[in-house]
Amino acid sequence: MKPLKSKTSAAVLMLVSCMLLILILPAATGTALSSQPSASKPVQAASKFVFHYRTPYFPTRLTASSAWADFKAADYGSIGETVKAKPVNGDLGLVASDSEDGRWIPLWYTTAAAKAIAETEPAYVTLNPNAKLSLAPGSALKWAPPQPGGKLVALAKWKDWTGVLISPQTWMSGGTVYRPVLFWVSSASISSMTMIPAGVLSKDSDVPTELARNMTEIWLQKGEDQARVQKLLGTPDATEHSANLAELGDPMRMGTTWRYERQLAQFTVSFSKEGKLEAWKWILPADRMLQMNVYSGDNYTLTYDFRSMPAGLTLNAKPVWRNQGDLNYSYLIGATNEVLLLNGDDGGFSGMHHDSSIYAVDRASGRKLWQIDAGFGMLDAFLDESSDTAAIYTEYDAKKNIYEHHVRELNLKDGKLLWEKLLPEGHQLQMYAAKDVILLHQVADSAQASGVLTVLDRATGKQLWNQSLRGNQQILRTDSEDPYILIQEGLTLKALDPKDGTKVWSVSGRGDLNQDPQTHPYYSYGTIHLPLEPWQSSRWFLIGNAWMLLDTESGRVLAQYPWSEQERFETTNEQRYILVQRSGGSEYFDASNIKETSLYDVFEQRVIWTLHGKAVSGAFDSTRLYVVLNGLPAAVDRSTGNVLWQMPVTTTQSSSPYTLDEMAKSRYAVLSKTVVIGYGSDMLVLRKEDGGLLGRIRDNLLDFSEAHYRRGIEGLLNMSGGELYVGSSNGGLARYQQTELDRLLEMMK
Question: Are 694 and 648 in contact (CB under 8 A)?
């Protein structure tokens, strides 16, 4: 752990840039021999030290006999930070920390002399044969260079000394990122110097990617000015909206992200509206293991993605419009021909949130029409296309900052309040809808208590009827188009007339009671319903030992599939076909160990074909089925199950059993000659013919918050009538025209 630190006001006002030296040849293995024994001299008697320059934390104490493998920074301290250290002698100080062994710092950076470090333009240099590298100017700890005669990069000066940084021999190990380490050499020991042109990541730069990465790890600090960053890195290849720059629970802060894109590596830097550097990320090919958002030391703003998929260059596709929300996640949850209804969520931990909202957007212009803020309470919404209204339930009043249960019926186009009910406190409530009514479910406080179902007239908000619910009676989620209220009691599902509660039909099953997995927060088992698709009267229900595809208007069983503890399925975009996942190694279903997936025809009751591993998000297109197969986009022959193509990867290993599986963030949108899918955090475009990656569409960060898998899969990427609607994890909702995307992508081919 990095020690606790605090800012000192004097040092905060002092802006000292760091320009350094980086070894660009591979470091030699072996021992670094000091030219002198380490001196023992007290530098500062106090137990507190203030950094006057960016200071490396060494995981072990450096000595004259240290191996070059030990020369690596586990973290860096910033200018103005104060650390507590045990009494020390010599060049190094042992910093108090939560770790068993502590960490070591070069004490010279806590002296006033370090304030005089001055930056220089970067330059390649070579050293004289007898040159030594010092821990700090004048330090007794000195070593021969790891590669005598090797080329270095000069970036800073202090009097007659030049700063030197050497890359760690192993810079990524066990999930820990190690950064270059600062050393110093007498300027008189430099035998030659060649200037490096500014803009080390610009298109015409010949600076190797590894060297450019080392430079950014030393150069860039939070708060750097945008102009300086551009001088150092060059003109970006793409500019787009940033992710939310605020801490969780704080108001959203948007900025600008620059992208520098090379064939095998990409680098992003994000700035505030004031033009100050806020965060940066390296996107690199994974070698042994896929890992996302790895950070260096305690610096959560400097991160690394080690991706196994190809790097996608940014495609400059412009949307018809883009709406910017005020919370991280924007999910489409409903629509009419004129209005889109969205759920905003700040992405709090474990499926919860500090802030949430329901808001409406004009479908033609992207203009926000109205918004209901729900704070950190529960909320739900049901759109009624026939009346152009939306029913909103909130359990918390964000304006009053108190818990109050409200149900409101709003005009969809302008948000005008049609009626409102303040509900009793002290009970957990759930809201559903059916044809012309709103359902309020007062959940039972205990297994012995009874719940209450109250039915309101949708037009007026007046109560039509209510009834008590026994402990084993469960109200199933229905929507505004559903003709009946659905209640499951044990092995029986019955439909009630919304007007008076009389039973219309019922269906019974056999066998044991089983928990319906369709409410699972991390998967989309069972029926998948996309918000732009027309309402369907049929969907799947688990009743006893059988899945039943029921027509909810008549109660007729259209198809059945036997329940198995080791199986789960999800629907495709064609009703008769489902993708059945079968796990291995246990009598119960294990989502991290899917043995095989079968395409099953529910009407003919037969398996069409079976694939090894897990296949989800199925979308048929003519003779093909597009799926995410074992975490990777793929195309399968719909008749034979032969895999036609699958996205190539550098590794299938990941840092957890779920990382690769979690890369897909949406279902497919199928265009004329390409398919689009949210993958990683990008909106990727793949060729239909061979799965070749054409690139990522700019300005779209696709992700969903924890425990909101279904909301993300159903609400982030939707297509209807030649229009593509894309939600995001930075508050944006964009509309694209398919014809324009097809035209741009045809040019890319």
Answer: no
412-453 pLDDT, tens digit per residue, is: 999 999 999 999 888 899 999 999 999 999 998 887 788 999
The domains of the chain are located at: 6-195, 209-307, 321-748
Whether the model pTM is above 0.85? yes
In the three-class reduction of DSSP (H, G, I as helix; E, B as strand; rest coil), residue 666 is classed as coil
Dihedral sign computed on CA atoms, order 740, 742, 745, 747: negative
**Residue position matching structure tokens 């996608």:** 312
Q: Residue 9 belongs to what H/E stretch? A: helix 9-12
For domain 209-307, which CATH number applies: 3.40.50, 3.30.1450, 3.30.460, 3.20.20? 3.30.1450
Residue 485, CA distances (Å) to 502, 505, 698 in order: 10, 11, 44
8 A C-beta contact, residue 161 and residue 118: no
pLDDT in tens, 645-697: 999 988 888 888 778 888 999 999 999 999 999 999 999 999 999 999 999 99
CB atoms within 10 A of CB 71: 28
Tokens describing residue 81: 């930070």
CA dihedral 80, 84, 88, 89 (to 10 degrees): 10
Residue with tokens 């042994």: 288
C-beta of residue 331 within 8 angstroms of C-beta of residue 704: yes
Nearest CA to 92 out of 74, 109, 117, 73 is that of: 109
Mean pLDDT of the chain: 90
Q: Give, as one character, the DSSP assignment of residue 28.
A: P
Q: HSE of 740 in the Cβ direction (CA atoms, 13 Å)?
A: 12
The number of C-alpha atoms within 13 Å of 11 and in the hemisphere containing its C-beta is 21
134 φ, ψ to 5°?
Answer: -110, 150
> What string of H, E and C letters represents the secondary structure of 548-573?
EEEECCCCCEEEEEECCCCEEEEECC
Q: Which letter, b or e, does each residue of 132-141 get, where b requires 16 or more Cβ atoms within 10 Å of its Cβ?
A: bbbbbbebbb
CA nearest to 473, candidates 450, 489, 495? 489
Between helices 209-219 and 226-233, what is the axis angle to 10°? 160
Query: CB count, 10 Å around CB of 744?
Result: 17
Band of residue 149 on the pLDDT scale cut at 50, 70, 90: confident
Sign of CA dihedral 296, 299, 302, 303: positive
First-to-last C-alpha distance (Å) of the chain: 49
Determine whether 284 is exposed, middle or buried from the number of CB atoms within 10 Å of its CB (0-12, 13-18, 19+): buried
SS3 assignment, position 702: coil
Using CA atoms, how far apart are residues 511 and 543, in angstroms rounded to an integer? 9
Tell me the pLDDT tens digit for each residue of 79-134: 999 998 775 667 998 887 654 468 899 999 999 999 999 988 898 989 999 999 99
User: SS in 3 state form for 218-286?
Assistant: HHCCCCCEHHHHHHHHCCCCEEEECCCCCCCCCCCCCCEEEEEECCCCEEEEEECCCCEEEEEEEEEEC
Q: Which CATH architecture has domain 321-748?
A: 7 Propeller (2.130)
Tokens of 715: 């609400």
Place of tokens 């890992």: 291
Rounded CA separation 379/374 (Å): 7
Q: How do 277-285 and 299-307 pair as beta strands?
A: parallel
